[in-house]
Design brief:
single chain, 493 residues, alpha/beta, eight-stranded mixed beta sheet, 16 helices, 8 strands
Length: 493
Amino acid sequence: MNRPNLSYADGVIPDSANSDARNRHELEAHFVSDDSMPLHGDLYEQIDQLEAIDVDELVKLLADDNNATTSREPISLADFFEGLAQLATMGVVEVTEIVEAIHREVILRPLGRFNEGNVNNWQRGITGRIYGTIRHIMLMVGNNLASVLRIYKNIISQKSARPLPDSLKKLVNVLNGVMGDHLVNNGNALAVPMVLYDRDGNLQRDALSGRVTILCHGLCMSHLSWQSREGNGIDDAIKNTQPDTTVLLLDYNTGRRISRSGRKFSQLLKDLVDNNPNISQIDLVGHSMGGLVARSALFYGQQERLDWVKRVGNLITLGSPHHGAVLERIGNHVQDIIAKLPFAGSLAKLGDMRSAGIIDLRHGSIRDADWKSLEGRSVLPQDFRHPARLPSGIKTYFVASALVETHYDSKMTDLLGDSLVSVASALGEDDAEHALFVPDGHKAVFYGVNHMNLIHSRRVREQVVEWLLDNGKSDYAGRTRIYSYPRSLDIAV
């Protein structure tokens, strides 16, 4: 039995018998043969030995887009139970690793032996072997249980697979936001594939023509998040005011690297246009992380000169952390402090379990170059990010919100923003080369609206519809920034 890959790194491909043989052969052809190199050596240490390589092509080759978990049908009820069986066991394994790390630190630090050499020797000692045995047994039990459920699903219930209820669907998307890269790397059936739904919740399969608007949800959310029980969601408003427009809802794994999701979304849009050549225009509306995924797709679509980019008319982002989210920065800072405390440093592993998608939100990273050369699961510091400018010819609009209900110009109000994203970050404003140059007339600040309610606010909904209806006809660039207040029935300028 091959040892399962336990790495959380989104860039690591699991060592499984189901891996694509051709891709593996192409990868191995790039590396220098060295029998002294550890079997599980760091990928980037191997890359450093290359004399010449097309790094962009390698990153695309390493992407998990060919993994079965990103190309299959939406998760069924059988998938849910299979994934839970594996996830429960993996949870035990990860907790065991944290307990072992704390145990190791408590034993070695007082003796002055908490260093790399003694930590490596620990694994060969009796205590280290005991912990290793526990992990091995739990992995074996979990994988066997998952295999039994998988066989049952394929043989018994495949013909009548029950779709996942909406309540469980929302739970699965939350799990993907928290540990989505972990699910993909371990081949877990709970990993959400990237697909498009229509407004009725069915997979998009019908022929399309004319104008298409695609709504992209945020972290830990799903395509169901756009729905409103009162029938007055953004999707309803677009359909009511633009009956000839087809509204589609994107569903994806928010725990993956944003650049990975961007590449996958770009390919999805390419296939959509190839299969539906009569599509005349595509509008992208993204909430929070969804706006970054849309930007990433545009970046890679333009880089690869794909035809779908030419059909994009409008890009609207709602509270997207274009320059990072305050909460993730605070979380990372707290984790660094904990890691420096004696006997508590191992607890920092708990923070490191958060998904790569969440880590990317720290500085709003939407390019592979912001993380591919780093060890572990981090991103480049804010000042060293690679710029990702907006494609020309696309009308871009940014929406920000603030918890306060009145226009109070202060650094604290701007920093607090909607509780998760600052006003400046949501509006793409930055002093350095990363600033996204969108005219003031294409920016709107909504007071008295929190981050999650951006997709349900009546005022935000009306502004989005106004921009889409105008479709670039008016000269918004010559106008001042839009400010909207909760007690006003009109959009205040």
